[in-house]
Amino acid sequence: MSMLLLIVIYAAFIGLGLPDSLFGTAWPAIYTDFHLPIAYGSFVSVTVACGTIISSLMSTRLIKRFGTSKVAAFSTLLTAVALLGFAFVPNIWFMVLLAVPLGIGAGSIDVGLNNYVALHYSATVMSFLHCFYGIGVSISPYILSLVISGEGGWRRGYLIAAAIQTGITVLLFVTLPVWKKAHPERLSEEAEDMKVLSLKEALSTPGVRSMCSLFFASCAIECSCSGWGSTFLVEHRHLTTEQAARVILLYFVGMAVGRFLSGVLAAKLHSWKIVKIGLIVLGAAVILLFIPGSGILYALAFFLVGLGNGPMYPNFNYLTPESFGKDVSQSIISVQMAFSYVGIMLGPMLCGLIGQAWGMFIFPPYLLLLYAAMAVITL
């Protein structure tokens, strides 16, 4: 039962990744269709992030009352409905409205499943979990690259993503009984021992603020790449929309590969060592983005950004029960997720606003600034 449940959790994380890469990759086509300024994409991104921040901070209480399984299933349903709505929106403001359930659903899935895996499985499983997230975020740009030039364009891409998400939702609801059979004793013990900390109490715990800062910087890099990488390539490096979509696909592939390799290395190396290796790769990748060249160079650079930054998030999460205790890990992860989504919100928003004012040539220096902050905090 434990292995079957793990497969279900992996499927849920594929679903978590599906929406995260879709909007940024489709945005050059969306703002052209709706005749919008480039920076308007930040309205959708910020709304999704606000929803996830609120959801993250509320999730501990919901999980303590209803359990991880039910929260994950209903949250995935919310994201499926939102994706379907995106396929039919008449303007950007309906997208902003649908971004609310999309963000709320994503936050609860992320918080609940990360803590569940950190408590019940190994560091290898945690990295593989986020590798499956990488598969999810890789699928969306691939689907979009196939259909964006055809009938329906980016809307058809959202329809396909909604269909996949609906299938994952059905799987989660059908397998609800499996959760009780997989870890029955542990689940009852965790429900009793779980402490619900306030935001102030969590941030007062030694070490939590530093970890939250790392989550912020890493997620700001990740989502600035997914949200504005395609626009940088189209507007500044003069790639076509289709070429840019393929490059961003390789970015997400790099993220998935990085998390897979992290899972392999976790059998021999501590999580902090894996984090430091990732920092070296990420630094080299950011430098490559400064060099003018062909689509192949940009593809390599974005692949390496994903490869280096990909292992950060799962390893930071896995370190939480070890660093702060199992009884408060759910509350600490909730706060860390909230900070990660602040990074997801502010990172792309600032990149978009600065790019709108000065041009998208600022994209590599912007990533370098975030990388330097993360390196300093880590070291």
Description:
The protein is globular and about 55 Å long. It has 379 residues and is mostly helical. The protein has 16 helices and no strands. The model has no long low-confidence stretch (mean pLDDT 85).
- Given the structure, what is the number of helices? 16
**What's the average pLDDT?**
85
> Could you name the CATH class?
Mainly Alpha
Alpha carbon gyration radius: 19 Å
Search tags:
single chain; mainly alpha; Growth Hormone, Chain: A; globular
Put the structure in a nutshell.
By secondary structure, the chain is mainly alpha-helical. The protein is built from 16 helices and no strands.
Sequence-ordered SSE layout with sheet pairings:
Blueprint lengths: L1 H33 L6 H26 L1 H19 L5 H29 L2 H25 L5 H22 L1 H7 L1 H10 L5 H6 L3 H28 L5 H25 L5 H18 L6 H15 L2 H13 L4 H30 L4 H16 L1
Helix pairs in contact: 1-3, 1-4, 1-5, 1-6, 1-7, 1-10, 1-11, 2-3, 2-4, 2-15, 3-4, 3-6, 4-14, 4-15, 5-6, 5-11, 5-14, 10-11, 10-13, 10-14, 10-15, 10-16, 11-13, 12-13, 12-14, 12-16, 14-15
